[in-house]
From TrEMBL:
Family per similarity comment: Belongs to the enoyl-CoA hydratase/isomerase family.
A biological process from GO: fatty acid beta-oxidation
Residue spans crossing the bilayer: none
Protein name (record): Crotonase/enoyl-CoA hydratase family protein
Length: 270
């Protein structure tokens, strides 16, 4: 895929960016002293990075948080200090949506490495990733109800999609915390590891980065778009996307490798 954009790592302050040789980028929320709470600047840097990642040739992203917690959600202190009007906060939320939509629909696989608190807006952020990996310290909550607030970063869509409406309402009404196997079982994470969620997330990102970029673009954009369509329209869109992806030149090489028996075979886990 053409690289017509470059990302200037040095201009990012809230996000620590590490571009690996294999095309996987590590994007780390870098305010551990504030438990990686999302202030306006962090969200703007996310908009910037995720708007450009695909065209800059980023093959996959590991999204991590520095310190003991992935993300404590909305920066409550900034929100308090700013004493925002309804209109101001609507625009704050629209920028969160811009950032998270660029993640979900941007065409680059994003694997979230979760530890500690994944709460409020932190869960909204994690739910915009394509794959979530939790470790033994990870816990999920939507404390908005307790704080006198409401979700504004897409939880009503994405968290409800992951766990269902009833569980999400319970989390918001009662402050219910999910952790351990139960959290994985209800869909908050696809992987639960005993060791480091970062190591597993990196492994998964590297695996995804070996796919063809156009194939990953379709997986990490088209599926989300299709969820918003009627079944009839989604099936039509799927055929168009498959028409483009399944006839790409590099896919022919992979098909040839299957035909000459040099390609891997799909086997059960040993
Ligand atoms: C923060 C934030 C924050 C910590 N905004 N500054 N989110 C919440 O309701 C979660 C709020 N945070 C917590 O419950 C706890 O901080 C944690 C469980 C995440 C971590 O606890 P702990 O004991 O490790 O840290 P701490 O002592 O509570 O906080 C350490 C510092 O981080 C402290 O700052 P300091 O300058 O006094 O040292 C905290 O103020 C700061 N900090 N969390 C600002 N969230 C688009 S709408 C989305 C709506 C929501 O996201 S609502 C949910 C908000």
């Amino acid at each position: 895929m053409a690289k017509d954009v470059t990302i200037d790592i040095s201009k990012f302050e809230r996000l620590e960016l590490d571009a690996r040789e294999d095309g996987v980028w590590i994007v780390t929320l870098n305010r551990p002293e504030k438990r990686n709470a999302l202030d306006v600047k962090t969200v703007e840097e996310m908009v910037d990075f995720f708007s450009n990642a695909q065209r800059a040739g980023v093959k996959a992203v590991v999204l991590a948080g520095k310190g003991d917690h992935f993300c404590a959600g909305l920066d409550l202190i900034e929100h308090h200090d700013e004493d925002r009007s309804p209109e101001d906060f609507m625009h704050v939320c629209l920028r969160w949506h811009e950032a998270f939509n660029k993640m979900e629909y941007g065409g680059v696989p994003v694997i979230a490495a979760l530890q500690g608190a994944v709460v409020g807006g932190g869960l909204e952020l994690a739910s915009a990733a394509h794959v979530r990996v939790m470790d033994e310290s990870t816990y999920f909550a939507l404390p908005e109800g307790i704080r006198g607030l409401f979700t504004g970063g897409g939880a009503t869509i994405r968290v409800a999609d992951l766990v269902g409406k009833a569980r999400m309402i319970d989390m918001m009404l009662t402050g219910r915390v999910y952790q351990g196997q139960e959290a994985a079982d209800i869909g908050l994470a696809q992987y639960r590891v005993e060791g480091s969620s970062f190591d597993r997330a990196l492994e998964l990102a590297q695996r995804a980065a070996e796919n063809l970029p156009l194939t990953n673009f379709a997986i990490c954009s088209a599926i989300s778009h299709m969820q918003n369509m009627s079944a009839l329209d989604a099936a039509y869109a799927e055929s168009v996307v498959a028409g483009v992806v399944n006839t790409q030149e590099p896919a022919r090489e992979r098909l040839a490798a299957f035909a000459d028996k040099s390609a891997m075979r799909v086997r059960p886990n040993s």
